[in-house]
User: What shape does this take?
Amino acid sequence: MFSALAEGFVLGISTGTVCFVTCAPIYLPWLMSEKKSLWRSLGKLMEISAGRFIAYILFGALAGYFGGKLEPVSRSLFTGISYILLSIFLLLNVFRTHREGKKCKVPKWAVMSRSALLLGLFTGVNFCPSFLIALSSAVNMGGMLSGMQVFLGFFFGTTLFLLPLALSGYLTFLKEIKAGARIASVLIAAWFIWQGTDNLIHYYHQYRHNKDTYLLDMEKAPLRPVIISAPGDSLAVYALRDSLSAFYPAKPEVIFTDSLDAAHLPMYHKQQLVIVTEQVLKDDYTNRFLKNRHQLILKDPQSIQNVMPLLRSRIFRIKKGEKLDFRV
Assistant: This one.
């Protein structure tokens, strides 16, 4: 029952050093940006951990529920937004602590940067190496409860490595340390803005690419096969025809010719799949005419045997308004 919890804890322990290296540059400048005692630093660290705990539990439930449906392009959007929100939070904290250091009034909209819980939430869900390992484990487990257990165990395992950060409270009584921490926060925020923007640009390009294209699943599409080859290839062609008959509802059509011209081509159908050997393509007009049909061009007759494995395993992304044009 608790195998997912144990697996998450082991993952947290085994990747804890990576988690420390990833998160310490974010937490330390924030913790040292204003004066704190050891116990107050520990309290803030616990508050950060509470934010991470909430983020891990929620994301673990979602990962377990949706399984592997969170695609890399979606991760780019999610990571980009979380990085930019984290950057804004860090910059707000620099602004707030600088104002407070000069005994100036702090605007209400900047006070939110005092919340260690928010910092924990923003850093709790980002696709760092440790997080991705836990995510893969939650996806493989399947189910909301298992996903939550994996991330719960992961939380406890990684938190052990973050506890030493509370010692930063001893350093906050030095004015130079606080000033250096603010500079470090600005630099880290700039890096996260750059990374977040890069992720959002990647997502946008991928979104436009997906919007302007469509997927052709060679196994599921209702294609009408037409096999065109030289008469000498009849044995291999008939074997392919029989295989295609079991694969597609539409009966495959076979055409034998030494030189293909437009007169040989059957009536056009938008889901027609022409499988033709390259040796019979000797007419430029015919080649252009084939562009209106999905086509697999076979480099030689021996390539006929590769057609069925290709149809069973390939999903092609094609620009809208165009047809499949693939060489085997």
Q: What stands out?
A: The first helix runs from residue 3 to 14.
